[in-house]
Specification:
The structure holds two protein chains of two kinds. Chain A is built from 22 helices and 16 strands. By secondary structure, chain A is of the alpha/beta class. The chains are: A alpha/beta, B alpha+beta. The interface between A and B is large, with 82 and 58 residues. The structure holds flavin mononucleotide, iron/sulfur cluster and FE2/S2 (inorganic) cluster.
């Protein structure tokens, strides 16, 4: 090889959003080009930085740090190389139009506060060395020195609330499980992430799986559980593969198993796949499903914290909740509580989805407005048309009209605006979308996914589809609207769980804010 | 709950006069074969292997059903009794699980399986039009298999790729920003690999 042989270190994400845009083909093309050009290529398959509209995002390590190119199509790789991609490694800036500059300086990333997603996109997700070199395990190491009650105390002090939707304080739940006496307790991670417009759990599991395992282990130490289960939706085969490998490697390294980091304490994790049922994200349906049964919702009480998986006391938490815990144990509850607003402490990884120009993941403290997220980060709609509405919090969340974009994103402010924050997903629609159709879909989705246990949801949702249809048809509008509102009131007040109980939210918010759309226009 | 609980809803109108039009939510299940073919010895062996491998897991029913479908593409009717016997459950229990979950098929799918995301974020960028295109161009509406047996199309509700919709999963592979032209190319490539 000649004296000026180049050694280049490149990053191409293995996140499934990147794969969906051809990241594997880009990686293959880079390997081939490097071979042809005599370049020694060190290719790292990282998680995604969350700038999903730029995927596949290729990064090259330069003496000044990582430089990004994107979105790179496989057929553009040769031109990229011609324009000096590999020479960047030696400090010569490339000249291709897709060159975005230093990754860390990109405004999208600069404006974020990444606590949970600090390593995602930066490291090799499955490298144990990368994990510890970038702050991993510090929280678990601290937890191992603490009494269980002190761990619970730290989580309580952080103000961390459940990220799966309901926003219940994690510390209080943990305290209940800690206080229960049983021969076996469990930690059950809810990775069902069924809400449309959400993908933070997926990105975290694919991009930094050890963080979730560390959070689960800390939860286990806190409440006295030695077994953990991840209930992962079957729609996420890539996350399944990464998580399974991560668990094997973590066990081999002593990060899981009978002797956590040599402490003599035990905690192990198993993964179970869902099977395409949205309601199995509801925690008691999830427990039924983990037990191998039909995912039918259980009546509460008893709380899963006391009578959970196989009847044992169980911590059920969302992926984001558990993945927030290592930072809290590393830096202290007070440091976490210092971020955010009001009773919404810390950061939330928001997900910008649907008709948005710059879709992706934005982790910022609570209190950011919808407008800042959708305009400053999102850049408006992908279609270029005006934003008509945004659905916050998944299929059970309200459709908020463009006039409400200045609403701050925290649990209380969104509730005051008639919506809910849920799992932090934002689905944007432009003015070409008919909101009566979206209202009909909300009822239809409820009918498809209802577990069938209670009448208002099981039957009401199907009747709801019919009434919306009649309303749109417009034979007796006043009567049908009254009927729809009556039905929604019954579903809201008489459903056993939030599937039937909150489906009226997208329906009525559409009706209230976009009445014209229900007049057949 | 009282028998006429829904009487409060619209004063019973719903129960008395269901409108005939458009009342069924989009069918997610698969058309049942008119007469299910008996499982082959190889299929029975695959069922028994999945049971033997997984039956000691706590809550093994769902993992076993997944394993059978992963091996065979569907869950043959014969699996129910065998799983029930191995797990000491009633056949009704296993049947209940099998039919509760949208993932499981009771009949073999086409050579390729296309799952089209029908959830809100993908609707917002044209997944309805995409599904219509698939039906018109490739001969399989959502929930159906094309006459030549090449393609089964299924609805799926979110693939976690909501910033890059419309999203589909073709033979287990996630694809983003799928318009009609990209879909045609993906299907052509998949079918081309059959030959
Ligand atoms: C219909 C329905 C679907 C739900 N889906 C999910 C889900 O996919 N992921 C999740 O974490 N929580 C989901 N939840 C909320 C869970 O019931 C539960 O509140 C949560 O897992 C608790 O964890 P957290 O306190 O960490 O949020 C859902 C709730 C309902 C009613
Ligand atoms: S509201 Fe719907 S999903 Fe929830 S328990 Fe009742 S029937 Fe089941
Ligand atoms: S809504 Fe289609 S991938 Fe999430």
């Amino acid at each position: 090889m000649s004296a000026e042989a180049i050694h280049a270190r490149l990053y191409v994400p293995r996140d499934s959003a990147a794969l969906s845009m051809g990241a594997d083909e880009v990686a293959d093309a880079l390997v081939q080009e490097a071979g042809e050009r005599g370049v020694t290529l060190e290719l790292v398959r990282n998680g995604s930085r969350g700038m999903l509209w730029l995927e596949p995002l290729v990064e090259v390590v330069t003496p000044q740090g990582r430089v990004a190119y994107g979105p790179v199509a496989p057929e553009q790789v040769a031109a990229l190389c011609d324009a000096g991609l590999f020479d960047e490694a030696a400090g010569k800036a490339g000249s291709h139009a897709l060159r975005l500059g230093a990754t860390e300086q990109l405004p999208w990333l600069q404006k974020q506060t990444r606590l949970v997603f600090a390593r995602v996109g930066v490291t090799d997700p499955l490298s144990l060395g990368d994990y510890t070199a970038n702050g991993g395990l510090a929280g678990l190491q601290n937890a191992l020195q603490m009494q269980p009650s002190a761990i619970v105390e730290a989580v309580t002090a952080s103000g961390l609330r459940g990220r799966g939707g309901a926003g219940f304080p994690a510390g209080i739940k943990w305290k209940t499980v800690l206080g229960a006496t049983a021969d076996q307790k469990y930690v059950a991670c809810n990775a069902d992430e069924g809400d449309s417009g959400t993908f933070s759990d997926r990105m975290l599991m694919e991009g930094d799986p050890y963080l979730l395992l560390e959070g689960m282990a800390i939860a286990g130490l806190a409440v006295g559980a030695t077994e953990g289960y991840v209930y992962l939706r079957s729609e996420y085969p890539d996350a399944h593969a990464v998580l399974t490998t991560a668990i094997e490697r973590a066990r081999a390294a002593g990060w899981l198993g009978k002797d956590l980091l040599g402490s003599g304490k035990a905690f192990d994790v198993h993964v179970r796949l869902g099977a395409g049922s949205y309601v199995c994200g509801e925690e008691t349906a999830m427990l039924e499903s983990l037990e191998g049964k039909r995912g039918v919702v259980r009546a509460k009480p008893p709380l899963p914290a006391l009578v959970g998986l196989w009847g044992k006391p169980t911590v059920v938490n969302n992926v984001m909740t558990l993945a927030s815990v290592p930072w809290i144990l590393q830096h202290g509850g007070a440091a976490y509580a210092a971020k955010g607003v009001g009773r919404s402490k810390g950061t939330l990884p928001f997900q910008l989805a649907g008709n948005v120009k710059q879709g992706g993941l934005v982790e910022v403290p609570f209190g950011v407005t919808l407008r800042q997220l959708l305009e400053d980060f999102g850049g408006g709609t992908r279609s270029g048309r005006p934003i008509k509405a945004v659905q916050v919090g998944g299929p059970l969340g309200a459709w908020l009209p463009a006039g409400k974009l200045d609403t701050p994103c925290d649990y209380e402010a969104l509730a005051a605006a008639g919506g809910l924050l849920g799992h932090g997903g934002l689905v944007v629609v432009d003015d070409s979308v008919n909101m009566a159709k979206m209202a009909r879909y909300a009822m239809e989705f409820c009918a498809i996914e209802s577990c069938g246990k209670c009448t208002p949801c099981r039957i009401g949702s199907t009747r709801g589809v019919e009434v919306v249809d009649r309303l749109i048809q417009g034979q007796d509008r006043a009567a049908d609207e009254a009927l729809l509102r009556d039905l929604c009131a019954t579903m809201t007040s008489a459903s056993l769980c939030a599937m039937g109980g909150l489906t009226p939210l997208p329906v009525l918010s559409a009706l209230d804010h976009f009445a014209d759309d229900f007049r057949g226009r | 709950m009282p028998g006429n609980a829904l009487g409060v809803v619209g004063k019973g109108v719903f129960l008395l006069q269901p409108t005939p039009r458009n009342s069924a939510p989009e069918e997610r299940m698969h058309p049942r074969p008119t007469a299910a073919a008996a499982a082959t010895p190889e299929q029975l062996a695959a069922i028994d292997a999945a049971i033997a491998r997984l039956q000691s897991l706590p809550g093994a029913c769902l993992p076993i059903l997944h394993a059978i479908q992963a091996a065979l593409g569907f869950v043959p009717a014969e699996a129910t009794a065998r799983i029930a016997a191995a797990l000491n459950l009633s056949r009704a229990d296993v049947h209940g699980v099998l039919t509760y979950y949208h993932d499981f098929r009771s009949a073999p799918p086409g050579r390729h399986v296309l799952k089209v995301c029908r959830a809100e974020a993908c609707q917002a960028v044209g997944s309805d039009a995409l599904a219509a295109h698939v039906a018109a161009r490739h001969g399989a509406a959502v929930g159906a298999t094309s006459a030549d047996g090449a393609l089964t199309v299924e609805a799926i509700y979110c693939l976690g790729n909501c910033a890059l919709g419309p999203s589909v999963q073709l033979d287990g592979r996630l694809c983003g920003r799928v318009d009609a032209a990209r879909l045609d190319a993906l299907l052509a490539a998949a079918k081309g690999a059959d030959a």
